[in-house]
Write a structure and sequence with these properties.
4 helices, about 140 residues, 5-stranded mixed sheet, alpha+beta, globular, Aminopeptidase
Length: about 140
């Protein structure tokens, strides 16, 4: 299995639009995707197996106010059904961990729920730790 992982750039807008169509079932314009990918804080990372889209990870670099550093917020990770348990998700996480190290970020983090046992085990298997087990997520609807 030939696995390739890369961060998409503005010139990759057609592939980014394909990610959205494949995994979110929505159409987005190439113009929008170019703009999205032009933002240096946005990280759309894709995994391809034999040239086929296998998964993606969407993350954002968050600047810190109290120190000159960033944290990487992994917003979403998805692996296509036919590619699960084949190292695709692990490769996406490894890629992000490499970015965090190269760009001297403080850490990367992701939220999930305790009931999502598959995600909890996956994140643990890739080296993540639960740092504060009593976090709550509050949402303000727009």
């Amino acid at each position: 299995m030939r696995l390739k992982v890369k961060r998409l750039e503005p010139r990759d807008a057609p592939l980014a639009a394909d990610v959205v169509k494949t995994f979110v079932a929505k159409d987005v314009s190439l113009q929008y995707m170019k703009r999205f990918l032009s933002n240096p804080a946005n990280y759309l990372i894709v995994a391809q197996v034999e040239g086929n889209l296998a998964g993606f990870l969407l993350a954002y670099a968050l600047e810190r106010m109290k120190e000159a550093s960033h944290k990487m917020f992994i917003y979403e990770i998805e692996v296509g059904e036919g590619y699960r348990r084949k190292g695709v998700g692990t490769a996406l996480i490894s890629y992000v961990r490499g970015i965090v190290k190269r760009e001297k970020m403080m850490s990367a983090f992701i939220f999930t729920n305790y009931w999502n046992e598959g995600a909890v085990e996956f994140y643990k298997s890739t080296g993540a730790e639960v740092k504060n087990g009593d976090d709550l997520l509050f949402v303000y609807e727009g």
